[in-house]
From TrEMBL:
Superkingdom: Eukaryota
Classification via Pfam families: zf-RVT (PF13966)
Protein name: Reverse transcriptase zinc-binding domain-containing protein
Gene source species: Solanum verrucosum
InterPro entries cross-referenced by the UniProt entry: RVT-Znf
Length: 83
């Protein structure tokens, strides 16, 4: 949209008015369920930050003491790629 391409300004998942990428990757109700699935599987209690960069930082800090750290770090990328 910033480049002049006409696009629907709504989120494709929840139909809410979403003009920013943080909604799509972090705060959409459908995407939040994906995040919750992975955090509950891990036993982590993560509050979703406002920005994607903050999400990556907190996600990496959460898994820093883990033995399967490399697998834990790839989860956000997998979720975002799926979206």
């Amino acid at each position: 949209m910033k480049r002049g391409i006409h696009m629907c300004p709504r989120c494709f998942f929840c139909e809410q008015q979403a003009k920013i990428i943080n909604h799509l990757f972090l705060h959409c109700k459908v995407v939040r369920q994906l995040w919750h699935l992975f955090t509950s599987f891990r036993g982590a209690n993560q509050t979703m930050p406002q920005r994607a960069s903050q999400a990556i930082e907190s996600w990496n800090n959460e898994g820093s003491s883990s033995t399967d750290q490399s697998r834990w770090r790839i989860v956000p990328v997998v979720i975002w790629w799926s979206i």
